[in-house]
Amino acid sequence: AFGLALGVRHMGSVKYKALTFILTFLLYTSFHLSRKPISIVKSELHKNCSSFSELATIASSNSRNQQPSLPSLHTDIDCSWKPFDKSNYKQLLGAMDYSFLCAYAVGMYLSGIIGERLPIRLYLTVGMLTSGLFTCLFGLGYFYNIHSLGFYIFVQVANGLVQTTGWPSVVTCIGNWFGKGRRGLIMGLWNSHTSVGNILGSLIAGYWVSSNWGLSFIVPGLIIAVMGVICFLFLIEPLCFWVICMSVSTKSWKGVNGHTEVYLQYKENNSQVNDTQLLLPRDSVCVPVQPVVVVKSESEPSAISFMGALRIPGVIEFSLCLLFAKLVSYTFLFWLPLYITKAAHLDAKKAGDLSTLFDVGGIVGGILAGVISDKLGKRATTCAVMLLLAAPTLYGFSMISEFGLGPTIGMLLVCGGLVNGPYALITTAVSADLGTHKSLKGNARALSTVTAIIDGTGSVGAALGPLLAGLLSAGGWDQVFYMLMTADFLALLLLLRLVTKEVSSSKSRPISAVE
């Protein structure tokens, strides 16, 4: 009977793992899908007005000399969306990015702590519905002809705060369902939702950007709101101790290895019913999914404190490394379409479509980083090598992008892989490893807080990158690329201690610095 129970347990476990993998993938895809439109719409908020000015001058001259009865065009024709029609438009666009990302960074530290004390399904659902609301509000500015910078910054700040509900929640779900065995590969595949969301967001926003940019926000906002409803209906939170119940006549079962005080059965009058329990048959006997002894405890393990999470070995180093790695990634996320528009002289839609190649490279880079780190057992070393290669590649991209479309496409793919590889690995597999670190002694409630600390620190860099890009680009795009290369080298330096620890390990099996 016990062997049969393990077989049923395995089938049930695989089913729920697959459901969680696919559902959380789609949920966070919608988060990134709703963030992408602002980078696509930037080139529409401020257009190159020189051609309009020339047309206006000619028409004005003709109206004076030949046809005075025709209405004249003004040389200050409104070809851009106020208030982004001024010469300081880059700083204003950078301020919008900064307001979103700064709110996201601050909110992330609180989000993980709150998320561990609330039901993940409800927390995530509320966050997605409110994020959809604020994304749609930005688009409504087009239909209601709103030209107030304060309105757009308010929407960005509010959206940044509510979007912090997403990452700690989905990582907690996926991290608690999957063990460390092939976590790098699994999370490398899973983390491609970031790039998939960016690609879909670019294509959806690009479809309407030239004709009706309000829909570039409203459609993604509706998508993430719908996904929030799906989350509420279908997301299953993992039990701390997964059990599968079977209708077998073994009610006298005494536990594992002769232990008679094992607490394995649910009581009929239990007032707190987990989602997973509702899926299990009644009047049944519960057996553990793994041959471990679960001793009855009067209280669940308490959620870890902020300082307690910081004391986990490796959390500080990887957090600071992610600050600079995410600075580079988010600068590309928010400014790449505009850079392509200016450097390659393409319209907003073509530039948005071309920028998706960076995310295609990011998918491959994230998966490769996971596979390699699983094979070697060295997370920090894998990140360090990719960061080392990324810096000169960024310089190459800044040079080659001026030589035509073909070389630009190739360099976008390579840059995407090397930039997003370490970022993906740290935010997923490394965060999950640290959140289930052996020093926690099995306390699974630390994962959300650890994830929030790492991604929150990274989000500080994500806020600084686009802001600095907006300021530095006024003096030329070369300065932006120098800033990105410097950030990559700093991220590499912060990992050197962990890399040394991994490389110098003399044990028989590979040891990761996060173990």
Task: Label this structure with key terms.
515 residues, mainly alpha, 2% strand, 2 strands, two-stranded antiparallel sheet
Query: What's the multimeric state?
Result: single chain
Shape: globular
Please list the strands of the largest sheet in the order they lie side by side. 1-2
The tally of beta strands, per DSSP, is 2
Listing every helix as H and every strand as E from the N terminus to the C terminus, the arrangement reads HHHHHHHHHHEHEHHHHHHHH
Radius of gyration: 26 Å
User: Based on helices, strands and strand pairing, what is the structural class?
Assistant: mainly alpha
InterPro entries: MFS, MFS_dom, MFS_trans_sf, Sugar_P_transporter
Organism: Amphiprion ocellaris (Clown anemonefish)
Catalytic activity: D-glucose 6-phosphate(in) + phosphate(out) = D-glucose 6-phosphate(out) + phosphate(in)
Membrane topology: Multi-pass membrane protein
Please outline what is shown here.
With 515 residues, the protein is mostly helical. It is 69% helix and 2% strand.
Could you walk me through the main structural features you see in this protein, from its secondary elements to its overall organization?
- The chain is mainly alpha-helical.
- It has 19 helices and two strands.
- The chain has helices at residues 2-35, 37-45, 50-65, 89-115, 120-143, 149-162, 166-177, 183-190, 193-208, 215-234, 275-278, 306-310, 315-344, 348-376, 379-400, 405-435, 447-472, 477-494, 496-503, and strands at residues 243-246, 285-288.
- A two-stranded antiparallel ribbon has the order 1-2.
- α8 crosses α16 (405-435) and α13 (315-344) runs antiparallel to α18.
- Residues 1-11, 50-61, 66-77 and 240-298 have low confidence and may be disordered.
